[in-house]
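Input record (Table S2, row 414):
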Amino acid sequence: MERAYDVILAGGGLVGGALACALAGKGARVAVIEAVPPGGDGQPSFDDRYTALAPSSRHILEAWGLWPSLREALTPIRHIHVSEAGGWGFTHLDAAEERMGALGWLLPNRSLGEVVTRRLAETPGVTLVTPARVAAVEHGPEAVAVTADGAGGGERLNGRLLVVADGAGSRTRELAGLTARRRDYGQSALVTTLTPERHHEGWAYERFTREGSLAMLPIGDGRCAVVWSLPHARAAQYADGDEGALLGALQDAFGYRLGHLRGCGPRHVYPLQAVRAPRLVTDRVALAGNAAHALHPVAAQGLNLALRDAAALEEAVAGQLEAGGDPGSDALLRAYERQRVPDIRRTQQLTDALVRGFSLDLAPLRLLRSGALAALERSGPAKRTLMRIAAGRLGPLPRTACRPPGTAEEEEEL
Ligand SMILES: Cc1cc2nc3c(=O)[nH]c(=O)nc-3n(C[C@H](O)[C@H](O)[C@H](O)COP(=O)(O)OP(=O)(O)OC[C@H]3O[C@@H](n4cnc5c(N)ncnc54)[C@H](O)[C@@H]3O)c2cc1C
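Output record (flavin-adenine dinucleotide complex):
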């Protein structure tokens, strides 16, 4: 049987799932084709990681009605401290100094997964096709036909727009005729949690170490989420080895700002690669999230950037549907691409500059970097620009990603 939708989403992870909730909330008929069924093992998006959300993501999730259900799972970031092991310079960003309630929030991926899954099940107008994978994409003048291969065989769906959100290794991107360039960073992220001796008090630390960047991020009960980017072999060694060896290495790299580090949670390893799709759109197809751009986690920007893709699509599609127009028109897709490219490029460049800038372990470069961090610490305007980029506030941005008019920065409290 063939069914007709306004929007078909390939991939119902953090990006596809949240966008489906938003579109269905605006009355769109939406189908989500997702490889892993709700509650299924091995969901790659809603896993044990914690994501640092920027204010732009908060505005988007608030506009889509998802934020209130997430509140209990969020931990606010009040301070960010950036330093390099073996260097003397540092930079400190303070929410109070910037008259912000919080610089960002830590959210367990699983919590967003639970909220999105519940909302999708409750919202009329959403069809979840799962477990199923996109097997074919056919472009037509009036519609795009998508074949989903699932346990019960193939199902053909017709949509006016296909949003490809099936992650960095997207197969649907290729089936739709779009390409992506990939680059291995030569590193994997080792992810775990630990309980430091002293409470983090809302401080997030980014420490550049000899082997890669180490983020120590505040989460519930005074624990910290750890993301340590390391050469592949070293990450595997710490993931499989003795907990004491990992804690000792973390203590050496991080120091004693939070006292003794103890109590590692489960450990996971993510090979890191940069993905960049030169084109974001083709006939009745748009890429969003990691299918369009995957980033190194050093600046914690991947999902924040991806939610701004999703917000741009939601605004454009909802506007067309309200006006009785075509949500997969060439004009809409070209405007989406034009709007998103500057933000994507800027975020990719900032991320890669950080990875490259801190990758060489030479004494003169360390000195230079220390000087740069110290100079940043003293320069109000430079700090403010950095904050605007990190907060997802450098335009052009989707309207939904911006602070609603009339609300003050201080109101961005939990
Ligand atoms: C270690 C680490 C830490 C990070 N920390 C942060 C952070 O602090 N802040 C931040 O903003 N970002 C962070 N990110 C980035 C963030 O996790 C990604 O940007 C985000 O997961 C992208 O979501 P997505 O939905 O586009 O892709 P994915 O999360 O990969 O989801 C893809 C979905 O598509 C489904 N799927 C796959 N193939 C198919 C198919 N053929 N058919 C149907 N469905 C399919 C999958 O099951 C999955 O549900 C981090 C990334 C890593 C690796």
